[in-house]
């Protein structure tokens, strides 16, 4: 695969559709010295959704909502990988998960709201079933294997295989969830610009609170490299979502 | 648009007539001696279009998308160039005559 084809995939869909072939031509002619600038240009455009030329009605809202769900999925998988930490709620300290409230509020605001009519709901259920059935089946198969009993203490290669299957299933489920939001956007009404702006503000607030919480924990335990990485990731995500949210207000 | 070189270069080139992305960059190269990198050029084009300073000038079926400057774009470019000309004149006056 050519580098230009990979680089073009980094751009928001509307930009790809409008300028994709021209960008590829420029990258092919300029060679490797243009790769970094092309990738940075893609990143900047993701932060400015109001600059996207809307080639299909509602495209910007659909892509922003999908991107927001993707942020949620990545965050969930990262927290799952990090295990119990300063951001995980427990019964003694329920406030440690307070950051989740604005994030969930934002995600709820960003997801498409179906009109209450039987045909629309029917189409939505069909899309959801078609999209989520493969990861659902995978997950069911994993649960079945885990509860067989014969694999209580698997040997090393089998344990590694099960672990890989588990993470592949989780990642696949996350990707299909994003696909579901993108597909649902073609069936039901996408949230308006102001609502998406509000959604992004809520998510940015939640991420910022989580970043502060994680930073406090990293400050207490400076030897924990994972905590420092998590803080950086959360702070970067919060900033990116905040910039995109502020930009959406302009639309 | 103020102080954004890439956007102003694109508008200056488009003031001569509608062009597609590659031709815009070739004209910029003729004007300045170097081409804009793809990220800068297409970021500028997207931003200018979102601000209504340029618009598509050909049908969507064309392989290459041609864009043209709008009336708002011409007004904005003129204002920017006039301001730059004033700054250039003031700077040259302050420098005095060029040494022989």
UniProtKB/TrEMBL annotation, chain A:
Keywords attached to this entry: Membrane, Transmembrane, Transmembrane helix
TM annotation in the entry: 63-83, 95-112, 124-148, 160-184, 196-219, 225-245
Superkingdom of origin: Bacteria
Annotated protein name in UniProt: Uncharacterized protein
UniProtKB/TrEMBL annotation, chain B:
InterPro entries named among the record's database cross-references: Metal_resp_DNA-bind_regulator, Tscrpt_reg_PadR_N, WH-like_DNA-bd_sf, WH_DNA-bd_sf
Domain Transcription regulator PadR N-terminal span(s) in chain numbering: 10-78
Gene3D superfamilies: Winged helix-like DNA-binding domain superfamily/Winged helix DNA-binding domain
Domain of life: Bacteria
Protein name as annotated: PadR family transcriptional regulator
Organism: Kutzneria buriramensis
């Amino acid at each position: 695969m050519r580098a230009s084809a990979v680089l073009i995939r980094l751009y928001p869909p509307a930009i790809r559709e409008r300028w994709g072939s021209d960008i590829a031509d420029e990258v092919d002619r300029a060679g490797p010295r243009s790769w970094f600038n092309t990738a940075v240009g893609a990143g900047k455009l993701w932060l400015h959704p109001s600059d996207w030329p809307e080639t299909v009605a509602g495209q910007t809202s659909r892509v922003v909502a999908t991107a927001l769900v993707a942020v949620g999925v990545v965050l969930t998988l990262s927290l799952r990988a990090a295990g119990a930490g300063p951001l995980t709620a427990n019964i003694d300290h329920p406030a440690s998960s307070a950051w989740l409230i604005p994030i969930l509020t934002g995600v709820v605001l960003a997801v498409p709201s179906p009109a209450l009519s039987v045909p629309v709901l029917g189409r939505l259920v069909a899309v959801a079933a078609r999209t989520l059935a493969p990861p659902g089946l995978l997950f069911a198969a994993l649960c079945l294997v885990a509860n067989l009993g014969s694999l209580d203490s698997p040997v090393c290669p089998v344990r590694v295989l099960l672990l890989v299957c588990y993470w592949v299933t989780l990642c696949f489920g996350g990707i299909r969830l994003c696909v579901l939001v993108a597909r649902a956007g073609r069936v039901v009404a996408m949230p308006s610009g102001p609502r998406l702006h509000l959604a992004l503000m809520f998510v940015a607030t939640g991420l910022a609170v989580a970043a502060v919480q994680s930073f406090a924990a990293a400050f207490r335990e400076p030897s924990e490299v994972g905590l420092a990485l998590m803080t950086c990731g959360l702070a970067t995500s919060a900033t990116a979502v905040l910039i995109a949210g502020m930009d959406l207000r302009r639309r | 648009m103020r102080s954004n070189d890439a956007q102003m270069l694109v508008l200056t080139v488009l003031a001569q007539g509608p062009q597609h992305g590659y031709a815009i960059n070739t004209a910029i190269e003729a004007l300045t001696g170097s081409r804009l990198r793809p990220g800068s050029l297409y970021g500028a084009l997207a931003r200018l279009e979102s601000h209504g300073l340029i618009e598509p000038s050909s049908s969507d079926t064309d392989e290459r998308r041609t864009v043209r400057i709008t009336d708002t774009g011409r007004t904005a470019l003129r204002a920017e160039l006039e301001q730059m000309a004033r700054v250039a004149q003031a700077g040259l006056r302050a420098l005095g005559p060029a040494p022989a």
